[in-house]
Design a protein that fits this description.
alpha+beta; Rubrerythrin, domain 2; 3-stranded antiparallel sheet; two-stranded antiparallel sheet; 8 helices; disordered N terminus
Length: 241
Amino acid sequence: MSTPHRFETKGLDERRSLVRGRRNIDRRSFLRASAAGFGATAGTGAAYSFLSELGALGSEATANKEKSKKDVPSRSLAAARCPVTGDSVSKEFSIDYRHGKLYFCSAECIDKFRADWASYQAKANAQLVATGQFRQIRCPVTGDPFALGIKLKVCGVDVRFSSPDCLKKVKRASADERVELVFGQKFDKSFASKDARTGGSAASAPDKWQCAQCGYVHKGSTPPATCPKCGAKSDAFRPVS
């Protein structure tokens, strides 16, 4: 008659042989087989507990993987630049913006962006395109359909135009002027979200702007070029939550 020690050793050897012999079977069968071998020495109750814990861990891992897919844009963040400093960004520092995610290099830059949204909106819009969250639908200069062969790289993005004249106009502009021409006031007409259903709260893209000079409130996705009440320029407007 075998001793308890020998019985436990035998069960352990059986489990090891089972693992070696079933490396190529599917995952579920492998887990059930492992639990069966485990139950031979630890008892049926322990085997069921073992399977339950593995199932819970698997579900949690799947959920985390799906969440991670939704939080990260379709393109790498390596091409993205902080709209405030122009430095590389981190997924640790982000806010909801125009039905997407806007990334920064630090928490301080998030505060600066929120305090002066209008000054950084063109570069923020450019990042949405660079990270694949928005796509081009029209020429940013004329609003007409663009030609695939007429293009220029702006903020790391291949921007296409409707004619050689539009291309020349953007080429002649300074670096900052190019960003404004392509991703500024006409952004909503030239680019569109790839999936407007995923994320973004109403507060992330203001629809009201208040003039800091006279208090006039403008309704729209962007501030007006000049205040109709006092004549202040667009940079005098601040988003109203």
